[in-house]
Fold this protein.
Amino acid sequence: MQISIQIFFLLTLFIAMSHPVNGQHEINYSEEDVPAFQLPQLLQLENGKTVSSEEDWIRTRRPEILKMYKEHVYGHNPEVQIEITAQLIEEGISKAFTNTRRKQVRLKFENQGRKSEALLLIFLPLQSKSVPIFVGYNFYGNHTTCDDNEIILTSAWIPNKPEFGIRENKATEESRGVRSHRWSVQKIIDSGFGLATMYYGDIDPDRNHFDDGIHPLFYKKGQEKPGDNEWASIGAWAWGLSTALDYLETDEALDHDRVIVMGHSRLGKTSLWAGALDERFAIVISNNSGCGGSALFRRKYGETIRAINSNFPHWFNSNFKKFNDREDLLPIDQHMLIALQAPRPVYITSASEDLWADPRGEYLSCYHASDVYHLFGRKGIENSVFPEVNTPIQNDIGYHRRKGKHDVTDYDWQQFIAFAKIHLD
Ligand code: GCU
């Protein structure tokens, strides 16, 4: 008896060690082990009828899909109205760039004595009227996005990153410009665009707490965390982007019909959700967003629902945890999230070495979303064959797979600018 227990224990240990695990489960990186699956029908209404016109999509199918996403994945945003004020607190010519104006705006949020705030940093071409603008979150504070000494440091909680000089969860002078390679500011300005960025932790610190950031301002009496079908962090971050857009719409220098939302990775998941909720965003760009972003859940390649819910339990609503290892029961898949952007242009990227994000799954989402673009007479991704690296497709659904790692590079920005020029001019 004793021996057989030992053998059983050793066998279990051997199996566990011979499989790469994350969130206690196996992660697949082999195309051969991608299961056969059937995607939920994009163009079939809940009553079984087929969507055959723009009107059917806009009036019926789109709201059906949006509701499923709110209920099962990202959560419903609360209906409560809070007080939001914006104050331009700094303005000047940026010495870090040529031909560039800088503005910094403090957004203040308040409800029933609870307060929170965020800093929006804006760069604009010097001589400009009706400027189209990219808006996107940064990961470590506005001051990390470039070497401009005038950028105000956030007072929000930041994850420690000693190699960036971030300790004790605080922004430091040492971290100025540490992420500048991700923001091609000069190129954006020289191409006639503006750039607005905000630290996502100003809206909701990226940790498994619901007593900080914006959430508590929306709680009902006695509430301590969002309900099972309510928003979590991605929902809050998406709300923050719409709030930034509310401010941008008051700035006369900008073209309010040409605001492009861009996000990378967890913030690329966020840009897609923000674009789905808020159709004022004229173009939606999602860079290397992977699981819970542009990649198909049902492929179970790289990061899975179980892995993401184990590592980041606060990103999606509680209902989403019901789908750990049960991808096939989800009433949506991510081609639907891309379709929710239609008919607006949407641009998805992958990086060739970013297997965790499932590049092929990101591409196939675009391909399967295309039927909705066709309803509007637009061109999506028309070929299911995975494109070569560094060969951008710039249809109404755009896509490229950049050679290299999980990141945002100058190459990516070059394509975003080209895409925006094609589709907004
Ligand atoms: C982790 C996470 C991804 C996410 C990424 C990021 O790798 O598993 O889902 O996209 O972080 O945001 O950088």
Remarks:
- Residues 54-74 form the longest helix (21 residues).
- The longest strand covers residues 100-111.
- Residues 8-23 have pLDDT under 50 and may be disordered.
